[in-house]
Design a protein that fits this description.
Distance between the termini: 95 Å
Radius of gyration: 28 Å
Helix content: 40-55%
Strand order of the largest sheet: 10-9-11-12-14-13
Number of helices: 24
Low-confidence stretches: none
Largest sheet: 6 strands, parallel
Shape: elongated
Length: about 675
């Protein structure tokens, strides 16, 4: 074995055993993937990945996604070895309280981690979103001789990833869009937690991806670095997304556990780990051994990355001289700064008793701001005419139109969510995804991950209640609002009229501290006269006093979200005519209201007014927090029905009469 080969072998084994030692010390984790996929990862990271460990946010870096996030120690080992701010002490604190090396990679916690992965298939689809973002940005800002956005998205994907439906959805779309900057290495070890993949996963995966329109290659030996290298080089020359199927051995080197499910998700034990080290000619002691020559080799990434970024900076300088407006625009986008003057374009709607559906006012808002916010990009799961999310002055993103800003996701809600997250991870875009609220069930994992990772996509969900009408209970969300409100760091906003819709768009675009979910109606609702009622600006406080009716100190508070706001307005006016003093509270967002200080919240819902009624076209769970022990919560604690909307609202007691009756009950009348 020559010196170069020896160094390569030592470097790969360093990845393997640094990972396995960390799992063993933690007495928890997944050693099988890092030990089996080390050569694949080595090939990507040392021969192809263009990155700068000193600046993990360098815009033109290649992205690396560890889709099988359970193998997180593979990524942490690479980050430590190549010089990211992930010191050995953190490797040794794998899976421990307060460490930056948690059980699954978390975006924003560990330098160099591009995506939060672990739920299988999410990383696969995130990578598709990254590739869409790169391709779109390149088409917008690059000019001949000035290719300032030009990078790849690499991923390692697993059997589990490919079993998940989300990866099938995302792969189908990626093949259709011919995302040639997408290169995935498939860790084909044919083992899952329960045993051999022969138990449940027997189709020809390579042929399946060929049918999706991917460029597919096979590498017989997943430890053959040169063969993997050649395959990646060929992948770069093909205009299609690439899948390189690498035949690997889970837990490579383990004496009794290699190629078994025992290698997947539990520490190997000292005896088994020592046996693996002897099998591969590695010192048994000390633990966390890193040869000096291997570390020096990996750390070349620091100087190489600095040189790559410096060369890119020089290209940017040359680009700025020739195309100054484009250079400014690119810098603005990548920094997340909003363009000047966009807020002035937000529409204002005149009072109208007939009004419009909040999905329609959202559509008008999108189209008013889209020309001023060129990074706004998104689409719907084959429902753009119904969700009203099409940007009318702009084309669709397609093979022959990379500058397009509308996305046809097809009927792929789950992949849409994960792809939108990937677009946000990439940077330079404000992505959104849209479907009916009831189908948020199909995309709950990416919604949750956007909140966990502090991403700020905008989720647009229309047809938000039994107001869907004749389509019936399969399409009428009732439990969805409260279940989505339960997700930490997700801001759910259900505006009550047209002007109430423009404000959450403003809030979401300005704040961008986490995901925003807009719940919008199919049916029209009156547009309130804001010269009579409080400004919709109060929406950004989560809840606000819409009006006090009847003069004097209110006796009762009526509160509502969304389309039921008009019901409390009518009920309040009728109660005031009876001589009952009423406070109307518009309550579009629990999360925003809960963030306000105590004095503001007490000003809207003072303890001195304990008689309260809430109404919302969904399950009532959670409203007692605001109505209190003496309050009444009107809603739907059951599934809907197929009938015209007005009939459903009457039959289910979502009426001004039901509100008035509840107030009379509270007042003992």
């Amino acid at each position: 074995m020559d010196e170069t080969t020896q160094l390569q072998s030592a470097a790969i084994n360093t990845i393997r055993f640094l990972s396995a030692d960390a799992v063993q010390k933690a007495k928890s984790g997944h050693p099988g993937l890092p030990m089996g996929a080390a050569a694949m990862a080595y090939t990507i990271w040392t021969r192809h990945l263009r990155h700068n460990p000193a600046n993990p946010a360098w815009p033109n870096r290649d992205r690396f996604v560890l889709s099988g996030g359970h193998g997180s120690m593979l990524l942490y080992s690479l980050l430590y070895l190549t010089g990211y701010d992930v010191p050995m002490e953190q490797i040794q604190q794998f899976r421990q309280w307060g460490s930056i090396t948690p059980g699954h990679p978390e975006y924003g916690l560990t330098p160099g981690v591009e995506t939060t992965t672990g739920p299988l298939g999410q990383g696969f689809a995130n990578g598709v979103g990254m590739a869409i973002a790169e391709t779109h940005l390149a088409s917008v800002v690059n000019r001949p001789g000035h290719e300032v956005i030009d990078h790849y998205t690499y991923a390692t994907v697993t059997d589990g990833d490919l079993m998940e439906g989300v990866s099938a959805e995302a792969a189908s779309l990626a093949g259709h869009l011919q995302l040639g900057k997408l290169i995935y290495l498939y860790d084909d070890n044919r083992i899952s937690i329960e045993g051999s993949t022969e138990l449940a996963f027997t189709e020809d995966r390579a042929e399946r991806f060929e049918a999706y329109g991917w460029h597919v290659q096979r590498v017989a030996d997943g430890n053959d670095v040169d063969a993997i290298d050649r395959a990646i080089q060929l992948a770069k020359k093909d205009p299609r997304p690439s899948l390189i199927v690498c035949h690997t051995h889970i837990g490579f080197g383990l004496p009794t556990r290699q190629d078994t499910n025992k290698a997947h998700g539990e520490p190997p034990g000292d005896e088994e780990l020592d046996g693996a080290k002897r099998n591969l000619g590695w010192p048994v002691e000390p633990r966390f051994f890193v040869p000096e020559d291997a570390l020096a080799f990996f750390r070349e990434a620091v100087s190489r990355g600095a040189a790559l970024e410096e060369a890119w900076n020089q290209r940017i300088d040359a680009y700025r001289k020739v195309h100054p407006p484009l250079a400014e625009e690119l810098q603005r986008r990548m920094s997340g700064e909003m363009p000047a003057g966009w807020e002035a374009a937000l529409p204002k709607f005149d009072a109208d008793p007939k009004g419009m559906a909040t999905r329609a006012s959202s559509g008008r808002t999108i189209n008013a701001i889209a020309p001023l916010i060129p990074e706004l990009m998104g689409g719907s799961a084959d429902l753009a005419p119904s969700t009203d999310t099409w940007m009318k002055d702009f084309p669709a993103f397609a093979v022959d139109c990379r500058e397009g800003r509308n996305l046809h996701f097809g009927v792929r809600e789950h992949a849409m969510g994960a792809i939108v997250n990937g677009m946000f991870y990439h940077g330079g875009l404000i992505p959104f995804g849209a479907t009916f609220l009831v189908f948020s069930d199909y995309m709950r994992p990416p919604i949750r991950l956007s909140a966990l990772s502090h991403l700020a996509p905008i989720w647009v969900y229309t047809h938000d209640s039994v107001g869907v009408g004749e389509d019936g209970p399969t399409h009428q969300p009732v439990e969805h609002l409260v279940s989505l409100r339960a997700i930490p760091n997700l801001t759910v906003i259900r505006p009550g009229d047209a002007n109430g819709v423009a404000r959450p768009w403003r809030w979401a675009l300005k704040t961008r501290h986490g995901p925003t979910l807009l719940a919008l109606s199919r049916q029209p609702v009156p547009t309130l006269d804001r010269s009579v009622f409080a400004s919709a600006a109060g929406l950004e406080m989560g809840a606000y006093v819409l009006a006090d009716l009847g003069g004097g100190v209110p006796q009762v508070i009526l509160m509502a979200s969304g389309t039921e706001l008009s019901l409390i307005v009518e009920a309040g006016q009728r109660l005031a005519a009876e001589g009952i003093k009423v406070r109307l509270v518009s309550f579009p967002s629990w999360e925003l209201f809960d963030k306000q200080d105590e004095s503001y919240r007490a000003g809207v819902l003072p303890d001195s007014i304990p008689l309260r009624v809430s109404i919302e076209a969904g399950v009532t769970m959670g409203w007692v927090k605001y109505t209190g022990p003496k309050g009444i919560n009107i809603g739907i604690d059951h599934f809907g029905a197929s009938a015209p909307m007005k009939v459903i609202y009457e039959k289910f007691g979502l009426t001004p009469e039901a509100i008035i009756q509840s107030v009379h009950q509270l007042l003992g009348k």
